[in-house]
Design brief:
Distance between the termini: 42 Å
Mean pLDDT: 92
Helix content: over 70%
Structural class: mainly alpha
Strand content: under 5%
Low-confidence stretches: none
Shape: globular
Largest sheet: none
Radius of gyration: 17 Å
C-alpha cells in the first residue's frame, strides 16, 4: 500500500525526533569521554560513542533515502564520503598551517552537508528549505 503524504511526513518527523535524541545522547557521551578519569571508563564511553555514531548515521541515511531525487541523494552521499576522508588526513598531518587549512575545508564541507540535509528534510516534510545552514541551540 502506498504511503500517503501525511503518513510519510509523520514517519520523517518520528525519525527526526529519534535523530535528535541520539544526537543529544552522543554529544553528552563525547563530553563525558573527554572528562573520563580512567581508561576503563574512557573505553566504555568510546564504545558507546561509536555505537551512537552508527545509530546517528543510520538515521540520517534512512531519512535521506526517502528523498525522491536520486541526484540529490548521490550528492549527499558524496559529501558524506568527502567528510570521512578528512579523518586520516587530520591524523597524519604534522603541520599546523596544513591543519588550519584542513579545518577550513572540513568546516566548509560540513556546512554544505548540513544545509543539504536540511533541504532534504524540508522537502520531505513540506516546508520551504532554508537559504543556508541553520544551527539550533547547543545542548546543555
Amino acid at each position: 500500500m502506498e504511503q500517503g503524504p501525511e503518513n510519510r511526513r509523520n514517519d520523517i518527523m518520528e525519525r527526526l525526533q529519534k535523530l535528535a535524541e541520539v544526537s543529544k545522547e552522543l554529544e553528552q557521551n563525547v563530553r563525558m569521554q573527554a572528562a573520563a578519569v580512567n581508561l576503563v571508563q574512557a573505553g566504555e564511553l568510546r564504545r558507546r560513542v561509536e555505537e551512537l555514531t552508527r545509530r546517528q548515521d543510520a538515521l540520517v541515511q534512512g531519512i535521506v533515502d526517502h528523498h525522491p531525487d536520486a541526484a540529490l541523494r548521490a550528492r549527499f552521499h558524496s559529501l558524506s564520503r568527502r567528510i570521512e576522508e578528512f579523518r586520516p588526513q587530520i591524523r597524519a598531518c604534522q603541520d599546523a598551517r596544513k591543519l588550519t587549512e584542513l579545518k577550513a575545508q572540513i568546516d566548509e564541507s560540513v556546512e554544505e552537508w548540513v544545509h543539504l540535509f536540511q533541504c532534504i528534510v524540508s522537502t520531505l516534510v513540506g516546508v520551504v528549505p532554508p537559504p543556508g545552514p541553520v544551527a539550533g541551540p547547543r545542548p546543555g
